[in-house]
Amino acid sequence: MSQASQARPDHVPPGLVRDFDHVFGAEFGRDPFAAFRACRGDRVFWSPHHGGYWVLTTLADIREALQRPADFSNWPTGIPAHVSRRERMVPLELDPPDHTAYRRVLAPMFAPKAVAARNAAIGDTCEQLIDALAPKGRCDFIAEFAQPFPTTIFTNMLGLPAEESDRFVGWNNVLLHSHADPDARRRAGDEINGYLRELIEQRRAEPRDDLTSALLDCEVDGRPLRPDEVQNITFMLFVAGLDTVTAALSFCFRYLAEHPADRARLVADPGLVPSAVEELLRVHAFINPARTVTADLEFAGVRMRAGDRVLVSTALASNDPAEFEDPLEVRLDRSGNRHLAFGAGPHRCAGSHLARDEMATAVREWHRRIPDYAVPDGQEVTVHAGGAMGIDRLELVWAG
């Protein structure tokens, strides 16, 4: 067991304790989806790692917990809990009714109409990156496409300078994935906050056509957002916007590189892309959020106490055999695909429309220009696990 394990609490039955560590477990670094599948059996079990936490294993229970914020609070987010912030991220770590007012502020900025207005910029960015890569015949897919594509889009939306994208990605990688070095995570959080503080002051003096300026002009509960609230919200957007689509693209393109028949279907029928994106998000749901029990209760057949942490993994939910026929089979035309890759309840991902658009654009345009590609023989693909999983490096080769 990890050094962060603890003794079993009295209210946890001995038979429900498992040596399960979704952050540092070796099996999660090799194939986290197989590791999650291997833990099925009990409806719920207890992990002694990271202070101890319950793990729900069914989509029905996970969806219900996500839809009951009064019983399962989103504060603090993550297992282990993020250590880089002294206050809650708004609105991510607020629960209704406080969460609702701030969510209303963000909703129009990421609504389908707002995303549609950015379609041309999303398409242009994607095409420019692929045009530069296509003649080379190979690339580090993460560093040369999966990171710069969504990062360029999102930094532009927030009003961050595109030339500093590498710096932003570096901060975010440390903040989200350096679980073994909490001091480094704190420093990264402090540096991000310092940068955003200066950006907000600049936008207060000279507003521009970006989300930061728009937030400074927004109201919540009939009053203007304070600068510290704007900073808190932009921090949350920064953390979420610079990592999630990169992770989704990494898993999606690794699968397609290793499955030429499915890749050929997308090349032959681009109209299949939207449903293919949904299916690949389902199979590779990579966010593992956490909730905190607010009061003693019974749930999923066990007694939980106030303060208990609960893992509500989208990977487990979206591959539940009770909910999906042949869940391990990738069906690019799967219908009725009610996966939980974007979560559920009041904290369902606000940027889901943008993420879907970026994913569909990437899959469609890449296969239009580079239809036949593969992972080179002998390449070891490693994965970072934890709250937000993703591939560290993915080399692809094709005929240039």
Can you put this structure into words, describing what you see?
- This protein has a single domain, classed as Cytochrome P450 (Cytochrome p450), CATH 1.10.630.10.
- It has 400 residues and is of the alpha+beta class.
- The protein is built from 17 helices and 14 strands.
- The mean pLDDT is 92.
- The strands form 5 sheets. Strands 1-2-10-7-3 form a 5-stranded mixed sheet. The protein has a 3-stranded antiparallel sheet with strand order 4-14-11. Strands 5-6 form a two-stranded antiparallel ribbon.
Approximate shape: globular
Number of strands: 14
Query: Gyration radius, to the nearest Å?
Result: 21 Å
CATH fold name, please?
A: Cytochrome p450
Number of helical segments? 17
For the biggest β-sheet, the strand order reads: 1-2-10-7-3
> Architecture, according to CATH?
Orthogonal Bundle
Portion of residues in beta strands equals: 5-15%
Helical residues, percent: 40-55%
For the biggest sheet, the summary is: 5 strands, mixed
- Low-pLDDT stretches are none
The first-level CATH class is given as Mainly Alpha
Structural class of the secondary structure composition? alpha+beta
Mean pLDDT figure: 92
The CATH H-level homologous superfamily? Cytochrome P450
Q: What is the straight-line distance between the termini?
A: 47 Å
State the domain count: 1
